[in-house]
Write a structure and sequence with these properties.
alpha+beta; seven-stranded antiparallel β-sheet; Herpes Virus-1; PH-domain like; about 30% strand; 2 helices; Znf_FYVE-rel
Length: about 230
């Protein structure tokens, strides 16, 4: 997790952004600012086709960069994937996507960064180690701390299988009790496996562990989808 998490405040035409000083430290969930459609190429709103004039001014959506009238681009919504400090103007379509992503940042990522405790088994070993598992502050690594120390880059995770209990043939509630994680070792095609199990003696933390596992599942899916964009 070297490279530092230092950030700097930058101003762009879209607004103030708090970004990592080094691009290598950016979150795998980050999104670059789009180029704006030039004003001269946009005589009409790209949503409702209203003609721009002295009264009807044009506005650019900070997420897609397209040009709209005020009516079609009036919402100011948080856009954490672009590291904006304040909510920014977005078109209706982009605002819906950003609202869902903001919920992801506020819930799943915070749960993972707070961490949870599991027994971790490496590969085919028959020994497990009690470790605190959390997402790094820059969201790039899954950090495991115990007698040993591991850092797994999120984008290297290939499979997350959640282990549950409580299922009955007739239906019923299930509870996440662990997961099997597979990831690639950087610089090679070798695939490693780890098994995470919530300890039975941590009854007070069962809900926390289950929430952490559910968040890990969602984050791994988002990492695969978003890093392809």
């Amino acid at each position: 997790m070297s490279g530092g998490d230092a950030k700097k405040l930058v101003r762009s035409p879209s607004g103030l952004r708090m970004v990592p000083e080094h691009r290598a430290a950016r979150s795998p969930f980050g999104l670059d600012e789009p180029p704006w459609v030039p004003d001269k190429e946009c005589p009409r709103c790209m949503q409702c086709d209203t003609k721009f004039d002295f009264i009807t001014r044009k506005h650019h959506c900070r997420r897609c960069g397209k040009c709209f009238c005020d009516k079609c681009c009036s919402k100011k919504v948080p856009l954490p994937r672009m590291c904006f400090v304040d909510p920014v103007r977005q078109c209706a379509e982009c605002a819906l996507v950003s609202q869902k992503e903001a919920e992801f940042y506020d819930k799943q990522l915070k749960v993972l960064m707070n961490g949870a405790t599991f027994f971790v088994t490496l590969g085919t070993s028959d020994k497990s180690e009690l470790m605190v598992c959390r997402l790094s502050n820059n969201q790039r690594y899954l950090v495991l701390d115990g007698d040993s120390h591991y850092e797994i880059e999120i984008i290297q995770i290939s499979t997350v299988q959640i282990l549950t209990e409580g299922f009955t043939p007739g239906g019923g509630n299930t509870r996440a009790i662990g997961m099997i994680l597979q990831y690639k070792v950087p610089g090679s095609e070798e695939v490693m496996q780890m098994k995470f199990t919530a300890g039975e003696d941590f009854s007070c933390n069962k809900k926390l562990s289950a929430s952490w596992l559910a968040a890990m599942h969602k984050v791994s899916k988002a990492a695969k989808a978003w890093t392809r964009l």
